[in-house]
Design brief:
Blueprint (H helix, E strand, L loop, with lengths): L8 H5 L1 H34 L3 H6 L7 H13 L18 H7 L10 H13 L10
Helix pairs in contact: 4-6
């Protein structure tokens, strides 16, 4: 049998049946492609949406006075408002309560927006909860 003797299986069905086959396959592809694309898009959306646990973990971390606020104040307000400074007795900046009392009045000296954001977050979290004293 030579290459010319072999017939295409679709052609072997005859013209009308071949046309029906091609029409059926075309219809299948018209259905399969959009469904496939929708499935891929749905998978991408599910993969990119944050899980409920991730949403819970995105709570803002509390601002630590000693690690985040005090270094800003030491850089901007030293030596006057720290031990040995001329303003320390009236306004000691090494104490969180002094900063809470002053509030945003500190921004007259602290102009950097990043530093102000840290101080605002510290002020927004308020004073730490007092534990009940034992009887």
């Amino acid at each position: 049998m030579g290459a010319q003797d072999r017939k295409d299986p679709i052609e072997a069905l005859g013209y009308e049946q071949g046309q029906v086959y091609h029409q059926t396959m075309r219809t299948r592809w018209l259905v399969v492609w959009p469904v496939g694309i929708l499935l891929i898009l749905a998978a991408c959306l599910l993969a990119s949406s944050p899980s409920p646990q991730a949403a819970l973990q995105t709570k803002p971390q509390p601002v630590d006075f000693e690690k985040q606020v005090r270094p800003i104040l030491e850089a901007r307000c030293q030596p006057c408002h720290f031990p040995g400074g001329k303003m320390y007795e009236r306004m000691p900046f090494d104490r969180p309560q002094t900063i809470r009392t002053l509030g945003t009045k500190m921004f007259t000296r602290i102009k950097d927006e990043r530093e102000q954001a840290i101080l605002r977050a510290f002020l927004a979290q308020g004073a730490p909860a007092q534990s009940a004293a034992p009887p």
